[in-house]
Write a structure and sequence with these properties.
By secondary structure, the protein is an alpha+beta fold. Helices cover 57% and strands 9% of the residues. It has helices at 14-18, 32-39, 43-52, 67-77, 95-105, 108-144, 150-159, and strands spanning 21-24, 27-31, 62-64, 91-93. It has a 4-stranded antiparallel β-sheet.
């Protein structure tokens, strides 16, 4: 199902993957366009594979962007020139939806890319958790110490 390229390595830099993870509807998602690039398949092929296997993609795995969401994401994606209309609203895949894609695309390259994408989701979650722990500690210290440290706490919060 995927088009194999002898010169393309399935390794993708983690930063490349992380830049393509967006927060839409308070969920971390990847758009079909970005996934087709990472998987090295045409967008049409990816979407056809998904449509043939819709039972594998409930709403918490995949959803189609509303027109206004698609327009807003366009500035981040930069796939269309200003003034052009979006012909097809993109699909957004949550982490479980991305995991399901490897079974639908079913190639060695798709599996390797999928592993990297899932690791990027995990890393982002770990970073968020680490930041949350740090914020909780700062808040606890702020409540514990008196006014003389307020300047320090404001500086810390401003730098983050």
């Amino acid at each position: 199902m995927t088009k194999k390229s002898k010169n393309v390595s399935p390794f993708i830099a983690q930063e490349t993957v992380e830049k393509r993870i967006y927060l839409i509807r308070n969920k971390r998602v990847m758009l079909d366009r970005d996934l087709s690039i990472l998987y090295n398949v045409k967008l049409k092929v990816l979407n056809q594979a998904v449509k043939r296997n819709l039972e594998r993609f409930p709403e918490d795995f995949m959803f189609q962007l509303a027109k206004d969401e698609a327009e807003r994401s366009r500035s981040q994606i930069v796939t269309l020139k200003q003034g052009e209309n979006i012909k097809y609203r993109p699909y957004a895949f949550t982490e479980p939806g991305v995991a399901m894609l490897s079974s639908v695309l079913n190639s060695r390259e798709a599996i390797q890319v999928n592993i990297q994408i899932i690791r990027a989701f995990i890393r982002m979650r770990e970073v968020q958790t680490a930041h949350m722990d740090l914020w909780l500690k700062i808040d606890a210290l702020e409540k514990k110490y008196d006014q003389q440290f307020q300047v320090v706490f404001k500086a810390i919060k401003k730098s983050c």
